[in-house]
Structure formats: C-alpha cells, structure tokens
Amino acid sequence: MVFKSFKNISLFYIVVIVFLTAAGVYIAFNTYFWLTSIWIFILDIGVIIVLLKFIQKEYRKLSHFLISVDQEDFSPPFSKSFQDLDLNKAFNQLSQVIVSLRDKAQVNYHYLQTIINQIDTAVLCADDSGKIVLSNDSSNKLFKKSVLRRIDSLKISHDNLPELLKNLKTGEKKLVKFEMEGGVCSYSVQVTKFKLLKDNFSLYSFQNVQSELEQNELESWQKLTRVLTHEIMNSAIPISNLSGIVCQMLFDESNQFHESIDKEQEADIKESLDTIKVRSKGLVKFVEATRSFTKMPKPEFQDVNIKTTINRIISLLKPKLKDSAIHINTNFPSEEIIVSADQS
Questions:
Q1: Fewer Cβ atoms within 10 A, N terminus or C terminus of the chain?
Q2: What is the pLDDT of residue 78?
Q3: Please, what is the Cα angle at 95 between 94 and 98, to 5 degrees?
Q4: Residue 222: in which H helix or E strand, if any?
Q5: What does each C-alpha distance from 323 to 61, 121, 326, 327, 331 come to in angstroms?
Q6: What pTM, to 2 d.p., does this model score?
Q7: Residue 24: which H helix or E strand, with range?
Q8: Residue 33's CB: how many other CB atoms inside 10 A?
Q9: Sign of CA dihedral 21, 22, 24, 28
Q10: How many CB atoms lie within 10 A of CB 47?
C-alpha cells in the first residue's frame, strides 16, 4: 500500500513535468507567447523541486523506519515530519508483529527457566568464552551463589572444576565430590554441546548420585555378608559336628577314654580328622582371600578325584543325615573319575 501510493504520486509528478515541459517548448517555438512559456518553465521547475522534496521526504521516512527496526525502537515518531504518513501504518503493523514475537520469546524463556528451576539436577549453559548464559536454582544452591557469571568462578567450590568442564567431552561422565552441609556428596557431571546461529554452547548437568552410590555400597556389603556367612557356616558347622563325633568315639559318657577302638571306628576317626583339617585350611584360605575386597581370588585348577570329593561331602553331612535318618549308598565305577577343578 505504501509503495503503491509512492508510485502513483511520483507518476503524477512526472506526468505533470513532462506535460509542462512539452507545453513550454511548443509555445516558445510555435507561438508568439514566449512570456507564457517562461512562466510554464518556472512552474515546471517548481514541480521538479516539489518532486525532489517528496522523494527526499519518503527516503527519510524509509531510513527512519529501517533504523527503528534495527534498534528495536517501536515507539511512535514524535516529529511532525513523520506523522500522518502512510509509512507509519506499515511501521505500526510491523512493530506489533515484532513486539508480539519478542513477547512470545520472553514468555518461552521464562517458561523454560521455570521448568529447569523445578528439577533437582543442577544445570549450567555457557558459551565458548566461558560466560554462563543460563543456570537454575539447583546450580545456584550447589555452588552457593545467587548469580553465576563465568565457568572460571566455579573454582571457589572445586579447584579443578573449571578445567574439568572445559576438557569434558560429549557423552563422557565424570564423578565430582562437593562439600555440603551434610557432608561430602558425589555428583555425576556430563555435557551436551550444541550450536545456535553462529554461537557454540555447552550445557552442563550435575546430578546427585550420592544416594545411588550409598545404595550400591549397601547392596555390596549385603552380598559380601551373605557370602561370608555362607562360607563360614559351611566350614564351622561340619567342623563342630565332626569334632563332637570324634569326641564321642574317643570318650564315653563319663569322659573316660575308650581303650578298645575297632578298625571301623579308627577309620571313621581318621576320616573325620582329615575332613576337619581340610575344612579348616579351606576356611583359612577363604579368610585370607577376603582381606582384599578389590579383587576376587583366582581359581587354582588341579586334578580332583570325584570319588574322594563325594565321600568327603558325605562325611561332612553325616551328622545331619544321621539326625534325619537318611542312609546313603554310593556305587562308583572301577576306574577313577578325574576332573580339573578348584578343590576349595
């Protein structure tokens, strides 16, 4: 609409100038009214001056319009030279659109800020120069600052943190410990790098994993306790039972030593003592292996006779089998069955 009006007015002035010029030339060379032609030429010059002023004025309006858009100054012009102009209508319409877009951008920014302030994870966003452009309440609480301006300022909370963040790669996680009021807390730090227009940004997240570490530590101790209890009971109970059986074979109810011991009892006593010896050594080896919780002991493979192993297990379970009235019959092949295994 604005450019159409400018075109029509300019065309009108040009037509008038051409008409006056043609009329002045015709009267000057074809009639005796040369004085009239002079006045026509003077009027023609006046119209040209008016046209130039009109173009200059429109140029100034367009220049003012573009400068206002560039400076985001959408206030109405106070100068009379810019009032009641067609360009003002277009200016007002564009101003309303830009102001609306700017308001929406501000609303979206506050909406995003509100969301990230509700999460427990500390979030920081910084540009290539290390300037922090976005942070949430959790990060302010973590670093004990109301305003975070630069990555280098985080050195107060942790000496190596700025250098760690700068060297952190996308997808990589680092564990950082912070001193809090309740003690030391462990945080998992990771970064996501992205680009907006021509600027590069890094989004850092600090997630509190102290409760997870404590839970994993508790579960590890529970598993270790179950293993220790199982292994100790597997050795302690048979040793106790076999010791009691040997004691019954060697002494009577009045605690007197049996002088007459038959061959079968002698074999049982020897087997029981051998079993106690093996289980005691196994228990000692297990305790030595559990002194270091950082690595499990490697199995020591050797040739193991299946018949000997089964007989030893039956001997260990003899008190339970006797109390439960269970009798076991074994039948082994004539050849020995040897396997490679860890005897412990």
A1: N
A2: 46
A3: 85
A4: helix 210-250
A5: 111, 60, 8, 10, 23
A6: 0.44
A7: helix 2-30
A8: 12
A9: positive
A10: 17
Closest to 170 (Cα-Cα) out of 153, 195, 146, 148: 195
Six-digit token pair at 295? Answer: 């690595």
120-208 adopts what CATH topology?
Beta-Lactamase (3.30.450)
Joined together, the tokens standing for residue 1 give 């609409």
Residue 340, beta-bridge partner list: 303
| Residue 231 identity | E
What's the full length of the chain, in residues?
344
Domain segments of the chain as ranges:
2-105, 120-208, 215-341
Q: Are 142 and 206 in contact (CB under 8 A)?
A: yes
129's tokens: 């120069």
What is the per-residue pLDDT across 64-118, written as a single tens digit (0 to 9) for each?
767 766 666 656 554 555 544 555 666 677 777 777 888 888 888 888 878 888 8
List 193's β-bridge partners, or say none: 202
